[in-house]
Each structure stands twice: as structure tokens, then as C-alpha cells.
Amino acid sequence: MKKRKPTHPGMVVRMDVLEPLNLNVTQAAQGLDCSRKHLSAFLNGRARCTVELAVKLAKATDTSAQSWLNM
């Protein structure tokens, strides 16, 4: 049985947060108060979820920072 690669948390943010709210990367970066460059890399699976980003995502989505770090 093949094991599939775990879903990157950036993909979760893109599909479950940005798309339903019809937000682009620039708007999301402004709302999260983070750099567009880092958020774009995160959403595309090229950057990890930092503690700082996890805290900002948790506040924005009413979840825990630990849940974002555990993904």
C-alpha cells in the first residue's frame, strides 16, 4: 500500500480559507500582517509554517496555533 504525502498546511489555508472568502494572496497577507512573499511560498508548499504565522492564522480562523504547527 502506498502512503500519500501529507497535505501541506498552506494548501489547507488556500482551499479552506482563501478560496471560500475569494481572497487573493496580497489581500490575505495584508489581513494577516505578513509578507506576501512568505505567504505565497507557504501557500505553495515551499515554506514551512512558522510560529508567528501559526499564531496569526489561529487568530484569523479561530483555531489554535498548535494545530497549524502540527500539520
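The above is record 1. Record 2 follows with the same two-line structure.
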Amino acid sequence: MAVQFDYDSDVQSVYEILTEPQYLVDRSLALGELSAECEAEEADGITTVSLMREVSRDLPRVLSKLFDSVQLMDMTETWREKSDGYAGEWEILIRGQPVAITARFELVPTRSGCRYSVTHKAKAKIPLVGKQVEKYILSQTADGARQELEYLRDYLD
């Protein structure tokens, strides 16, 4: 599932914000997450962001039997500079659950600023209901991405 968002700011400014640990913690908390911790490091032209988030979700009845409504998520995001911006990938592992969410993203210039786009995939290793769980996770992930990107837009304004 793909999500994209355009900004009036330049690529470098948006990249610096999206790899700033304090911004990512503040965004997580502002969007209703229970807690967040983040660190970033740069080496050999690669920026790695590690973000731990504690979230609470209202789950559909069938999923509430499989998952706790409060979950710890560990995200590792890797950014690489490319000729016209940045590209990378991230992975979210949900502690204690047979679920992983991955994504590929890019941040590229546009005439009026830049565009961030991300494509998500989910894998749930759960017999019989795995595909249903994946579909639900992807819809939740896309909604969350839109909220995060709208938060960034408001932050930039």
C-alpha cells in the first residue's frame, strides 16, 4: 500500500527533520502513542534511525483475541542519499507477535518543494487468519503514515 505527501520545503530540510530523534519522539507522543524512544546514527553515508514506540490500539474483535491492545513496536529505518534526494527502507517488529511491517520510501525534490512516498508490506505468520491480519495492519499503517505526514506538514508551517 502506497502513501505520498508533498511539502513546500526542500528535500534537505525535510530529511533533517525526519531523522531528528527528538522530533520523532515528539511526533509519536503528539499522535497519541503512550511512549517513544529514539536514536539516530550516521556512518558511511547511511543514516539509521531506531525508534521504539508503545502504542494502544482498538482492535477488531477477532484480532483482540490474538493481540494485546497495547504493543511495543521496534522500528529500524535506514536512509541513503541518492542523486536527487534520499531513499531507504524501514522495518517494524511488534514484540512478542509473529508480525512484521516493512516499507520502502523516497524523498525527492519537486518544483515547489519535495515529495515523500512510502510503500508498505506486512507479513503475519498466523495460520488461517494471516492474510486478514496483514490486510488490517496495512490499512492501519497507511492511516498512521498519513497522520505522521500531516503532522510534518503542520510542523513545517
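The chain has four helices and seven strands.
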